[in-house]
Design a protein that fits this description.
With 377 residues, this protein is an alpha/beta fold. The protein has 10 helices and 28 strands. About 2% of the residues have low confidence.
Amino acid sequence: MLVQGIIFSNLHDKNISELTRRRTMASVPYACRYRLIDFALSNMVNSGITAINVITHYNYQSLLGHIGSGKDWDLARRSGGIKILSPYMTAFSNDHNQLYNTRLEALKSVNYSLSRFTGDYVVLSDCDVICNIDLNDMISDHIESGADITLAVKRVLLTREVSARSVIIDSDDTGRITDVNAYPTNVTGYRDIDLNILVVGREYLQSVVLDAIAHGYTSFSRDILARGAARRRYRIYRYDGYFATIGSLADYYYHSMELLSSGENRDKLFGIRNRPIYTKVQNSVPAKYSDTARVSNSLVADGCVIEGTVENSILFRGVKVGKGTTVKNSILFQGTFTGENVFLNCVISDKNAIIRDGRTLSGHESLPFFIEKGRMV
């Protein structure tokens, strides 16, 4: 049995436009040393999927630099391995040959590549959901049930705000999907939401894409799942582990801080035996702490130089914290430089930002202060 993977790198860029102006959603840094695509890639590699296709959109230079040949995920192979599928793969990706906005449009745009797939099954995954899922168990459940499509879902307590950016899945006692409600604004309470991870047979996926091209369908949730729920065998796979979905900059901040406040969540994401999360190896020097450094409850990557105080914060590679500087409840991306006597609270700084001496910057948990890439403050 051969299983191939598809990862969508750009579908949710608009959710955190602050961080995706110059990069894809897939290459957004996360948890001190990772990128969001690392979780989807690792889930597949840990399940023995070694033929993976990443569908790109635009702004994917940093994604290419991060993935490279794929050797850090053991994907530098003559057969299979990782492939980057760029946009405009076909002339009929949509009526006006525009860049796609949905999962189904993305699949239509790479239909030629899909037609050359040889695996028995295909696993599709977005990059906005952070989890450590056993795809082997999900694939086995899909095969045993004889389903056409199996969706990974998670039962959560919905608010109106979360509901408006979620696809709600209703199912019967046997796990068969009975209804699909995409982005409702009036649903609350405990419901199953789609995690944007699914398993489908290769031949059925190819027929779905060809049918979508013929009929002009654009939405996988509304045009495929909702339309076919009554007559096709669509099933759920309930995932019970840790997950986080990134729907806004506030979500990104909240879930990043969640890793600091809960060791249990970190263990469920990074501490599962035989299912590590892989990322690009940088081989940087260790972090350096001076005599004046004070660090507590923080994640600090290699290559950092700490001369001030760091509390409840996440520092990526090569961050410099100057003397007399206090960094609290903040996320500083790679290469961020803070001068002396700086105070930062609830701040997210993109790569290579510079905060000069004596600056005081503060946001709030619901609205963190954001500094653009390469910006001097």
